[in-house]
Structure formats: structure tokens, C-alpha cells
Amino acid sequence: MAATVYAQSPSRPSWLDPYRETAAKLIHExxxxxxxxxxxxxxxxTFGHRLSGSENLERxxxxxxxxxxxxxxxxxxxxxxxxxxxxxxxxxxEILNPPHHPMAMLGLGGSVGTPAGGIEADVLTVSSFDEVxxxxxxxxxxxxxxxxxxxxxxxxxTYRTNGARVASQLGALAVLVRGVGPAGLRTPHTGSxxxxxxxxxxPAASISTEDADRIARLSAAGTRVRVRLxxxxxxxxxxxxxxxxxEIRGRERPDEIVLxxxxxxxxxxxxxxxxxxxxxxxxxxxxxxxxxxxxAPRRTIRIVLWTNEENGLRGAxxxxxxxxxxxxxxxxxxxxxxxxxxxxxLGFSGSAAARSIVRDIGSLxxxxxxxxxxxxGGGADIGPIAQAGNAPMMAYLGNPxxxxxxxxxxxxxxxxxxxxxxxxxxxxxxVMAYVIADIPExxxx
Amino acid sequence: MAATVYAQSPSRPSWLDPYRETAAKLIHExxxxxxxxxxxxxxxxTFGHRLSGSENLERxxxxxxxxxxxxxxxxxxxxxxxxxxxxxxxxxxEILNPPHHPMAMLGLGGSVGTPAGGIEADVLTVSSFDEVxxxxxxxxxxxxxxxxxxxxxxxxxTYRTNGARVASQLGALAVLVRGVGPAGLRTPHTGSxxxxxxxxxxPAASISTEDADRIARLSAAGTRVRVRLxxxxxxxxxxxxxxxxxEIRGRERPDEIVLxxxxxxxxxxxxxxxxxxxxxxxxxxxxxxxxxxxxAPRRTIRIVLWTNEENGLRGAxxxxxxxxxxxxxxxxxxxxxxxxxxxxxLGFSGSAAARSIVRDIGSLxxxxxxxxxxxxGGGADIGPIAQAGNAPMMAYLGNPxxxxxxxxxxxxxxxxxxxxxxxxxxxxxxVMAYVIADIPExxxx
Lengths: 445, 445
Hints:
Two copies of one chain form a homodimer. Chain A is of the alpha/beta class and 445 residues long.
């Protein structure tokens, strides 16, 4: 499915003339050096992965708050949020027969563990929910492998999310899910699993595409494949975490908010560089550039680094609850949670009137290659407040092929992102946010 | 360094005319289906990795012997070889400070283990032997990280092979080596380490390029990086293994040998598909194609699947010792131990007279894209016997960029090799071996 590109506006809409110089300054300042990339490396090198409930996450939050203050952002604060604490523990999955073969695996976030010693059973390999339902008798007492080839994330993530529930209803003992991503280098992809009300939760893990293919080939050849899955995974009581908030205070209408952000938590593998360290850094950087250049737009630019996007969305929910009375003051919300890999684009969701304005602003981003605004903006973290306030939404969208190759894997690390990609995203977000925050009338709903 | 391509010969040397029809048949038969690829998948799926001393290796050897017999090869047998037994055991490497970060690592084959509980020390990061020697005082009592960026395998493998010896002489406690290969997806590369006479052996492990970069960035920023390395690695007494041998017996000069092969052992990660399951399969397939088509050349074609190439070369040494009296009967030796990834080539080492003949035979491989023979043939397994017998040597050389991306890693699996790549290699080796085995005079030394 190709993205819908809104027809480009005339190349120099005259209403933008008052903003051209400042936009050019923001773009120039962002591209001057690799400051933002180095900040991303500092975040990921110093704190590593940042799963909800971990010390790493809380240390990163403390650092972000202190660093935002040093940047000269205003009203910098944390807003407390109770978050779930899921703990992976030790885990393994191995083919026992034919001869012992340890698989590349990751338990799915939120999964229950196995009994000590693991679950040992024959594997039933299926490639769809229809197939497992049609083989219900074979699923009972087995470990079900959902081996659906990756097409798009939205099409195939359902096996990771819902596979355990469906298989449990058929009496399966556990599920393995082919990694939701293109083939890597024996790379498993974690992510959350969801259980159903009244359905016994069964352990769920992701395995690499290569290991899934191996089981599938053996099964197709009529070989009985026996697997042992052992997981210490458990959920502990909720703990306190926080959203980090900082602002460029509006000079005329400080109560009207242009909301920007990403999520500071990550899965507990890799270092959460693309998901979503970089989303935090580029939105934060947009505000830092304004602070540095002394730009004070008409409305307030608010940066939020949400906690617990990955396995609970508690940060987003808490923000929407805490700011419910001011939901309608959110005039625009932008989230960066799809990485910044080139070629990137900006996606937008809102009324035709708002679209027309945003499309015009896009013309300021021509030198960044981001002038065409595509259909579809939003994000898990901005969703609740934007919905409550009926705010137009935008997403910074990195190249999905490169993103999903490392999404939720141990390979989500900083060095595969270039400093140019980071600077470009920060510049584009800064220009878009600045103009929307500064135009005389608020962006139409 | 670009490969030297010998000047191509006239496109249709007339002396080859008697061989054109058979060569075409071999190429056609090889390309008809994915038989050879499926055999490679059977080997790697059924037996997995095949480290010397493992049950997997011995089961694969038994299977290969039985399967060669079923193929109709002659004089199929195993020739016993005592091989080292190195056992990896559990292992881990983690950054302790800044906060805990488990690294993607693999102990190096042959390494000693650490004391129980591991070795904990600050890291000294260097990028060359010169640098570590110039910082000898800093190396003492530390874990030394050799962080030399990958250029070519031959240029950078020295840190894996010799790093422990050099660092031990300076009083280091252990070494970490940046994976010898291009950046993967947090992919560590194992391989053997060599200790020196009279120098205390210290534990040695490979870490992923991403983890090496992270330590290097932290060290460059002045952060003290503390690491714990824990390895249960140990060497047990030698055990019996075997080379697998099968032949197409020569119709006129059965004592003159055209030797083809790869090594059946592998490292204990991945499934040893490219290194070197595929080398075994394509050379064996060359003989199977001849048996199937009823081709009996003048001289004997001998296939050897050597054991213990990776960590001892005992199979090659034993073969050379056992057949020492007949070394000079080896008229030609070809090894496939560089994978078969496209674009591939054939490399040759021998006299000018032999080169001229081999170059002519290359013209029969035009449709396979392999007509240009490049300089440099040989292989670790054919080396000892070919040297003893002064035999011309050839190597089937897969694309090194793709090969070294997965070399000695958990990602060395069958699905990244295409059936076309396997069939092409088998066809080229079959044609080359058949003509050399059939020409009236033996290939000049």
C-alpha cells in the first residue's frame, strides 16, 4: 500500500513569509553538528535498555529531567505514573529432537513463565489462525508455532499479540511466534503478548525466522519436532515511574499547547535507540534548538517523554487523565515513534482545513526532503490526549523496512542511525512545531 | 585488492571438444532441481552444528558415509582421526559499570575458562597491537578489548588469533575481540585463539561490533568501563572422529587422484551451513552427478569430507599422513571452504602450464558466469597433501562480503544460501574435476 501524498501546495505560500527566516535558522542550527546524535548515544550507552520497572529507566528519567533544565527548557518536571513491572528472568527454547539445538528466542513481554524445568512438548507448526483452528485436535497438549511470514508489521503482529490466547483456547501448552520482522541474523523480536479474560495464560516466546524455518522444514518432512521452553518470566507489583515534561513557554497564549514527544521506556533488549530513544531525543532537540536560538512562539511547545509505552501505555493514560481538563488546549500533537531511518516522512491526521495549513508548512522542509506530508498521523502516546481534545496529530515516520529489521531486538542500537537522520528529524519537527505554535489562529480541528 | 584475472583463452579451444557434451550434461543435471540445497538443509536441520568432539558431528559423519553409498559412490569409507574436544560451557560478558549491560558474546574456540564467578576488571580499549604495547602499564590487570574495525578477514583475524597471547605477555587478565566481520545485528563471531609456548593462557571472547563500539565510546568519554567475563570453557581429552571418503573410480588410471572436498565439522553456533556444510555438499554433489549420469573419467575423483578443520586441522593432517606414499598421485586438489554466495569465482594456484589448461576448461563454465579463473587457489584441508605431492590447487570462492557477515556466527544457516548458488557451485566443480580427471596427460605440476 503506497502512502497517500497530499497534493503539494504552491511552493512559496505568502502567509509563511514571516516564518521563513526562523525556519531556516532552525534547520541550519540542527545540521551544524552531531549534538543530537551524541545525546542519543549518551542516553543509550549510559543507561542501556529501559524497561518499565527497571532501575535503568528511572535513572534515564532523572538524567532527562536534569538535562532538560540545563538546556534552558521551562517548567521542567516529572509527572509520576505507576507502571507494571514485568521481569524476563532466565529463558531458553531448544529443539530436543532431532538433536539438541538451542534456538535464538526472546520471551514476549507480559508472558507468564513456565514451571521450573520448562515445558516439553511436540510442536504443531501453523501459518495462520484459520490453520490452527482447523487443526484443533493437534494443538491440544502441544507447543504451537505460529510461522506466518512477515509482510507488514500491522498484518503480522497479531500472531505475537493474540497467538497465545487463540492457542490456549485450543488447549495448547505454550506458543512460539516467528519474529515479527524481516529475516535478520538469527534475530528474535520481542514485544507484548495479550491474554484473554477467563482464558488460561500460557507462556509465549518469539523465535528467529531461521529457527522457525528449521522447525517448519522438519515438520513438513514428517519429522516429529520436540521442544523445551523454559521461562522464568513473571509480573511483580506495579512501581512508580514518571513522564518527563519540559516546555518552551508561549509568549502570548501559554495555555495553548503544541505537544511533542516520544517514549523513554523500551524493551529490555538492545538499547532502545530507534524505539524510542531517538523519538525522545529529536522532539526534545526541537525544543532545545528553540531555547538556544531564543525563539519564543505564540503558544507553548511542550515536550513529553512518556513512560511505559511498550507494555502498558500507562504514561499516555496518566498524561491524558492528569491534563483532561485542558485536553482541548492541545492544539496539535506530534509523536516520533517509528524511528528516523531514511527515507523518512511526516504523516498527518486532521481536518481538511488543518491539512491545508500543514501542507503549506511542509514547503519549508523542501531542503530536508520532507515537504510532502503523507496521510496518517498519530501515535500510541499522543492518542489519548489528542482524542480527548480532538487535536490534529502528526507522526515522524522513519523507513519501515530498516526500522522493523531491528524493532524490539537486541540490535536496536545507536550506531545504525546516522547523525544526519537525527538532525533532519529534529529540524523538521522544530519547524513544524514552531509555525503551528506561532500562527495567529490555532490549527483548525 | 582486486583479484587477478588470468587472460581469458580463445572461447572454444578445440582440445575441449570431446568434453563439451558431458560438461553440458553435468551443468544441466545440476540445475534441474534443488536436490543439493535440500541435502544441505537435511544435513544442517538434522544434525545442527558439528564441533569436533560432539555427537552431532559423529552422527553427521555416519549419515554422510551411508548416503554416499546410496548415491553409488565407490570405496566409500571413513578414515579415523583423533580430534580435540573443546567444550564451550556456559558463558557471559557484561558491562557492570555503567549500569549492567549483557553483551552479545561468544568465547573463542580453544580458550581457557575463567575462575568460577568470572573475571571482573576495567577495560583497556585498543585498536592495534602497537597501541596495546605502547600502553603496557594500562594493560596489566585489565581486560583488553581489541577494537580493530573489520577490513578484510586476513587483515583483522590476527586480533582473534593472537590477541590473547600479546595481552597475556603484558599482564592482562583476559581479552575481548571485536567480531571479525562487518557489523551485523549484535552478531558475535567465534573462531579459534592460539596461545604461545610459555605464555600463560588467558580467557578470550568475541563481542559484537555494537558492544565494542559502546565500550569504545564510553572509554573515549573518560568513563571507566568495568566488565565481568565468565566462561566455563575447557578442553577435554581427544576423541575419535573421521574423514569421510568416497570415489568415482578412474577407468584407466585409478591410482591418479583428483581430490575434492570440504570440511564436515563446524563451530558450535549456527548450523555450519556456509562454513562448511555447503563445501561438503557441492563437492560431493559433483561426484553424485557423475555417478548418476554414468560418467567414469580416466582418473579417480575422490571426495573427502574432512573432520576438525576449525580447531586443529587434524583431518587434513591425518589424510596427508595416511596417504603420504601416494601424495604425488594427487594430480589436482580443489576445496570449497569460502561459501558459495554469488558472485562467486574459481581461484587457482599452479604452474603456468597448468594454468593455461585450467583457463581453457573455464570456458566451459561461461553459462555459469565462472569462466574467468582468478589467481589464488588452495584450502586448509587440501594444503598438506597438495604440498606433499606438489599438486595444483583450486578453491571455489563465494562472495566474501556475504560470507564474512555470517562466518562463525549463529547466523550461519541454510536459508541465506539459494539453491541456484548451490547448484552452480556443484556444476562448476563437476565440470572442472571431470575434465582434469579425463585429459590424456595429467595436469602439469
